[in-house]
Amino acid sequence: GAVVSQHPSRVICKSGTSVKIECRSLDFQATTMFWYRQFPKQSLMLMATSNEGSKATYEQGVEKDKFLINHASLTLSTLTVTSAHPEDSSFYICSATPGLGYNEQFFGPGTRLTVL
Amino acid sequence: AQRVTQPEKLLSVFKGAPVELKCNYSYSGSPELFWYVQYSRQRLQLLLRHISRESIKGFTADLNKGETSFHLKKPFAQEEDSAMYYCALTQGGSEKLVFGKGTKLTVNP
Q1: Cα–Cα–Cα angle for B101, A78, A45, nearest 5°?
Q2: Is the pLDDT of residue A101 over 70?
Q3: pLDDT at position A102, please?
Q4: N or C: which end of chain A has fewer CB within 10 A?
Q5: Which of A4, A93, A97 sits opposite B95 (nearest CB)?
Q6: Which tens digits make up the pLDDT trace of B45-78?
Q7: φ/ψ (deg, to 5) at A88
Q8: What is the sign, positive or negative, of the torsion defined by CA atoms of A109, A114, B3, B6?
Q9: Dmax of chain A from CA atoms?
Q10: A46 vs B98: CB contact, 8 Å cut-off?
């Protein structure tokens, strides 16, 4: 089956620093990647939709300057949390879909971000 | 706006008992409905989708447009079914998933 990886799996950083999270589709080309945020014991909240070679589309209420998304190739999307603060601490999950009418999303294992 | 409601946060049954996880949606168009499952310490994965009309791991789900429901059922629950279950929908050809809040199923021995 299709595999999506995320790196790192865990990251701890100081307040004010920036953190980059990578999402890779390992065995398929992903025309679209999605970034979600999951708070403890809550559902996944879609943050943004990322298409290769174009600007990401952010959901309402998500600060695009805070959460920078780059989809540089058909197998890689990155999420950079800029000037991180403790309230940004969360579980970030990416997913990818091959597109072309096949809209199943394949999920990464997630990245636990802790901002001190 | 589209919404997915899973009324039960927690559901506990005994092994061998039937289980039903409820999901209701609100959407004016023709959505595509999904059930995703997340086992302990594992990633989210697709369990089934309504257009496939198939049974996976003994689970089935029927889309009821009149009641706007997509309940997940299994006649005989197994301990390995214990997991977090999320109902989700996509809208009219879009790839964006809207998730419910999830139901944690515990199957007791």
Answers
A1: 10
A2: no
A3: 64
A4: N
A5: A97
A6: 999 988 887 888 999 998 998 899 999 999 999 9
A7: -85, -10
A8: positive
A9: 42
A10: yes
Instruction: Please say whether the beta carbons of B49 and B34 come within 8 A.
Output: yes
Instruction: For residues B78 and B62, give the distance between their C-alpha atoms in angstroms, rounded to a whole number.
Output: 21
Q: Mean pLDDT for chain A? A: 91
Cα–Cα–Cα angle for A99, B94, A91, nearest 5°?
80
Cβ pair B44:A32 closer than 8 A: no
Select from A49, A93, A109 the Cβ nearest to the Cβ of B96: A49
Where in A1-116 does DSSP place strands (E)? 4-7, 10-13, 19-25, 32-38, 44-51, 57-58, 67-73, 76-81, 90-97, 106-107, 111-115
Task: Work out the angle at residue B20's Cα, subtended by the Cα atoms of residues A107 and B99, and round it to the nearest 5 degrees.
Answer: 30
- The reply to whether residue A32 touches residue B95, judged by beta carbons under 8 angstroms, is yes
Does the beta-carbon distance from B101 to A107 stay under 8 Å?
no
Q: How far apart are CA B34 and CA B12, in angstroms?
A: 22
Residue B100 · residue B6 · CB < 8 Å:
yes
**Could you tell me how far CA A29 lies from the centroid of its own chain?**
16
pLDDT score recorded for residue A100: 67
Question: How do residues A35-77 score in pLDDT, each as one tens digit?
Answer: 999 987 778 899 999 988 888 999 999 999 999 999 888 999 9
Q: What percent of chain B has pLDDT over 90?
A: 69
d(CA B1, CA A5): 32
Asked if B11 and B106 touch (Cβ cutoff 8 Å), the reply is yes
